[in-house]
Each structure stands twice: as structure tokens, then as C-alpha cells.
Amino acid sequence: MSTQHYAIKCTQCGAPLKILGGGRVTTVTCRYCHSLLDLNDHYKVLAKFNALKRPELPFSIGMHGKIKGVEWIIIGLIQYRSDTPSEAPWSEFLLYSPTHGYSWLVYEEGRLSFSRRIRDFDLVSWIANKPKSLFYRKAHYLQKEAYYFSYVAYVEGELTWIAKQNDRFVVWDYSGVQFQELSIEENQGELEVYHSQKLNPSEIYLAFGITQENQTPPSLHKSETTASQETAQVVSPFYRNAIFLLFALVVLTVFSSFFYQHTLLHTSFTKNYEKTFTIHTNAFLTAIHLSGYKGHHEALNVSISKGDKLYFSMNPHQARFPDHQIKPSWTATSLSATAYVKLPKGSYRIRVTKSNPNNQVTLTVTEHSIRLTYLLKLLGLFLMVGILYFFLKKGKRKRYG
User: Could you give the C-alpha distances from 327 to 24, 81, 221, 340, in angstroms and in order?
Assistant: First the structure.
């Protein structure tokens, strides 16, 4: 690429600086002392980034390469961070071409996209409506998420505006087809619109002469890189498999409850009742259901025992289990009462004593039962794992489809 460059000396440290960009470049950040110099005011020092460590990236200022058939030179670098601490920062390299002006090469955790500012977007209508869906050049775009904030974390090389540490941008991202994206950015009241498209990293690395061993940032040791890749490969399948297994467990439990439950007793009586029944499995609960005593002020007492051991008893005042007791929701005007008991496999005797011989009571004992509250807990756990997996995969992406 044939273009004219010139060199200056940093007014802070005296290091030689080569100016690579065109006439719109207004600032340059010294790569040695990280001072931000104003090219329009005798290279006055505007700010310093000397307290920050340069991010280790495969691209560097001065590199040449072709993108979409146009030869570009990298003249500047900005690293951004989002307002979410868990999200990794991303880097944007300012590209310059004497024939095509300025563009951006966006690097985000190994993914690359090409971004250019557009000026034919109807910002007036967008400001008035801020729609969730819009059209640009006959292509449809949908807003991915609510607006978010990004902040300048590091600056190096030349830029066409003054960027200082912690400068804040408000960003609205819209996703289109074929890995395209529109990003609308607001900084100090000014709005700019960028159109981005995903790039093939292998092609770009080859175009810029970056060898395979240099494609991974040098700051990541091989063991760390391998560990992060293995973690990414393991964590995603882990949560995906966990969601699947949990869903299968919920479905299996529901089917087992509704299709395999077995009625052991179902009888009606007016006098005291006593009967033996057998539990065939330890997998589920046993349901004891009483009905038919509304308005009769019936004093019922239910007990389940195995030999001399009492496993469960229930009356209008309390329900007693092997290791605890609770107050049942059973009143004189109740239509029915149901208790769920975990009974080990074996034979049991149930006794029901009653005070009103004129009132008929119906008793049902069912095994292979599950309480609705247990099912809701399983569903809640399923949703929690799904939400966790969603947020692990989700991330705000700067100008990246």
C-alpha cells in the first residue's frame, strides 16, 4: 500500500512516533509512555494511560492486510470494557486506507468482525421511536437486548477523535441476517451508526501475515489457553446435559406418578375401619385421602402402623410422622384431607376411628404417588439450571454478529 507517513517526537518522553493515518487523525498515543498527544495543538499531552498494561493481542499497529479486497493498515487501538464485570473486554483496531478512509477490525475473544461507520441511516426517525425492529438497506434487524454501556479501557496509536480512559458510550445493538449487525452509539450527546459483519479469522490472520503460533495472545501460556478451551468445551456440554437429564427426570417422575400409581384401598364406611395393605416399592410416597364428613363435625383419627411401630397418625389437631409432626389443614368443614407418607416396603395396618355413625367417610390409599410441591421444586430447579446456562452463553457483543 503506497501512502505518505511522517514522524514526530513524543513531547512527554521524546520517543519517535510515526504517523500512519490520513488527515482526519487528531490524536496519537505514544506506545512507550502511553501519553495521549493532540496533533492539532502542538502535540500537547491530553491524558496518560501509563498506569495501564497493554493488552496482549495478535494484531499490532503498523500491520498491513487485505479485508474485503481492500488493503488496510492498522493505525490505532482501543480496548473497551462493558458495565458487566463478568464480561471480558474487547479490542477495536482502527484501519486506514488512502482510498477507502477509516474502518474498524474488532477482536473479541478470538472472533473478528469488520465495522464501518454509515451515514445513510435515518437517525431522526430512530431517535423519535427507538424501535426494537428496523430496516436498513432492505435488510431486517432486531434489537438483541436493551442498551448497555461501554467504557474506554486502553488507547494506543492514532485516532480520529480524543478518547480518554473511562469515556462512556451508550450502545444499542441490532442483529441482522448473514452475521451482520448495526450498532448505534452515543457519546457526549453525539450519535454514530456502525455496520458490522463477521469475518473468517483464518483468512484475516493470513492476510495480515500472522502465523498460527502468534494467533493466541502471548500473555496466555499454553497451559492456560488449553485449560480455558477445555473449560469452554466441558462447561457448555455439562450444563446442556444437566438440563437434559433434569428434564428427563421431571418427565419420568410425572409419568411414573400418573401412569404407575396403584390404588391399594378405596372404601366407604360409617363405623370404625381397620385394614391391612402392602407397599411394594420405596421409590414414591403413599397418599392417604379422606372425604365425606363436611358439616357433621366428625372426629376422625387415622393411624398407620407396622407391627407395634406407629408410622403415621392424623386427626384434626395434628399429623404425626416418624420424625416430626405438623398441624394439618383439616377443619370441621373441610371437604377432604390428604396426607403423603414415605413408607418403606412391607405390610401395614391402617385404622380409622370416627365419632359419628350416621356419617359416611371414604378412604383411599394410593402408592406410587408424588406431591405436586415436589414436582414444582423439580421444575424450579430445571428453570434455574436453564437460566444459568443462558447467562453463561450470553454476552453483550460490541459490533459483532
Answer: 79, 55, 62, 14
| C-beta pairs of 369-375 under 8 Å, 24+ apart in sequence | 369/257, 369/261, 369/284, 369/285, 369/286, 369/287, 369/340, 370/253, 370/254, 370/256, 370/257, 370/284, 370/285, 371/285, 371/340, 375/250, 375/253, 375/254, 375/257
Whether residues 160 and 31 share a domain: the answer is yes
Taking the CB of residue 114, how many other CB atoms lie within 10 A of it? 20
C-alpha–C-alpha distance, residues 199 and 177, integer Å = 14
**297-316 per-position pLDDT tens digit:** 677 889 999 988 888 888 87
Range of the domain at 321: 260-370
Are both 271 and 135 inside the same structural domain? Answer: no
Distances (CA, A) of 135 to 121, 176, 191, 346: 10, 9, 18, 70
For residues 203 and 265, membership in a common domain is answered with no
3-state SS, residue 192 = strand
Query: pLDDT tens across 44-83, in order?
Result: 988 877 666 778 899 999 999 999 999 999 999 999 998 8
DSSP state of 68: T
Q: Which H or E element spans position 81?
A: strand 70-82
Q: Of the candidates 95, 80, 62, 86, which has an alpha carbon nearest to the alpha carbon of residue 170?
A: 80
Q: Are 45 and 34 in contact (CB under 8 A)?
A: no
127 within domain boundaries: yes
Helix (H), strand (E) counts: the chain: 4, 26
Residue 394 lies in a domain: no
Please state the domain count of the chain.
2
Task: Quote the crossing angle between the two packed helices 372-393 and 222-259, to the nearest 10°.
Answer: 160
Separation of first and last alpha carbons in the chain: 29
In a domain, 177, yes or no: yes
Q: Quote the mean pLDDT of the chain.
A: 80
Domain contains 366: yes
Report residue 61 as a C-alpha cell: 499497529
Number of other CB atoms surrounding residue 9 within 10 Å: 12
